[in-house]
Amino acid sequence: MARRTFFSFHYTPDNWRVWNVRNCGVVKPEGLFTDGFFDSSVFEASKKESEDNLKTFLRNGLKNTSVTCILAGAETSARRWVRYEIVQSVLKGNGLLTVDINKVENKDGKTCTKGVDPLTCIGLYKTENGIYFAEKNGDKWVKYSDYTRPIPESDLWFDAPTSKQVVTLSKHCERYDFIAQDGRKNIAGWIELAADLAGR
């Protein structure tokens, strides 16, 4: 069964690479595509929207999905809205995975530098008041500012943090290389594993 999957990525530099990844199963003859993913990406969101409207738009894009796949290029980990999509995915209970696409050629036939795993830049920590999100700001961890409410431990599909020390989401999720690990053949299985890990 195909998983309805949300794709999170940095649009401007990576849209050509993402298009190739997102459509890797579309050309298969109907009836043969028995495993794979549906695309609910919302990169078409207008940057003219207010922040609140854009947040609503991105949350709506996650509806009816069970997995969030971060397609990571050179600069993806630092993007505010990628981080927002990741946080909202955790709150929704989606499975998570990172797929590096830096070796996928753009429209000019060029690759890019491998970036930091975005799931190493978002984490959780526990205080006497509850569990909260944190994000990397340079070399430091700071409280995540786009969602500041405590998270019920029961809402997490992975082990909750037990102290103020930040535990990154990458500890609970897998990372793959689309080219080196034959993503065209294997991405459906990677997505399915992410769903299984989250109990989806």
TrEMBL record:
Q: Which segments constitute the Thoeris protein ThsB TIR-like domain?
A: 6-105
Q: Which domain of life is it from?
A: Bacteria
The name this protein carries in UniProt is Thoeris protein ThsB TIR-like domain-containing protein
Q: Which InterPro entries match?
A: ThsB__TIR-like_domain
Organism, as annotated? Methylomonas lenta
